[in-house]
Amino acid sequence: MSDLELFKGNALVGSDLFKSLMDMNKKLSGGTGASGRRISIRGSRFRMVVDGEQVSVSKGNSLNMVIVNAAEIARTYYEGTFDPENPSAPMCWSADTRTPSADVPEENRQAARCADCPMNVKGSGQGETRACRFSQRLAVMLEGETDQVYQLQLPATSLFGEAKSQNMGLQAYIKFLSAHSTPAIAVMTEMRFDDDATAPKLYFKPVRALDEEELQAAIALRDSEDAQKAITFTVSQTDGVAPKAKAEPKAKAAPKATAEPKAQKAAPKDDDGEGDDEVVEEPVKVTKTTKAATEEPKTADKLASVLDDWDD
User: Fold this and answer.
1) What is the pLDDT of residues 119-132, one digit of tens each?
2) pTM value surpassing 0.90
3) Domain range annotation of the chain
């Protein structure tokens, strides 16, 4: 793998088109309805779902794809236990992680601002986690399927965290690409499951540069209607989950002589029916990285280190 170099000598490097493709990296690194095709990671397996029906399940723990577009990071809060056999919409949600979305019923809103929400406090979820969890939606193109877009929704455990050896969450991976002036849309990316995690968790690494035909296909898909649908925030999956109905006002109960201690709420499950099994720190706005990460490579030849750094 060490002799494979991304974009070495490629005339695209330095062009206005290539620079514009880097803009998506900002979304993926934490900067600022859904498609009919999606990839579920339930049970730490890649499951291809088309119009709500599972059509195939991967045999291995890795899959190659191209990130063609991305939404901003979002939040969702489920009250009680998520049942994968009877999925429902969350109680409260936010498409921008700052305020509840406009379509959240007033009585379901947990706070006026996400920063002030009690469900955004460590310990409000299972263990030291937050009950209101982060996620991000991607539009991806699978290797060998240059005419199809799939939606991929990533849980917080696949987004944040420090890079450890070759194990990178999405934000760490995008910072790595950005340090080499490489747009994510121009790279074939391998995503693989963390075999040591009890809940679905993905790591990412570069495989190779796209050839000209693949890159043109990815660019065409980036602004397609399917890609836009894939990254549009909705409160239900593409397999027909009905939005949560507004809660009926409850009649006031007679006061009790002694207050019973409240039972602890069951830990909410993630989108794929698994609970978060580790603490994920609040994402912070990216400011300055290391000198190596911020310096512009002087020539396209320095892109060779993108794959050299992954050499086993």
Assistant:
1) 988 888 877 788 89
2) no
3) 16-244+264-277+289-308
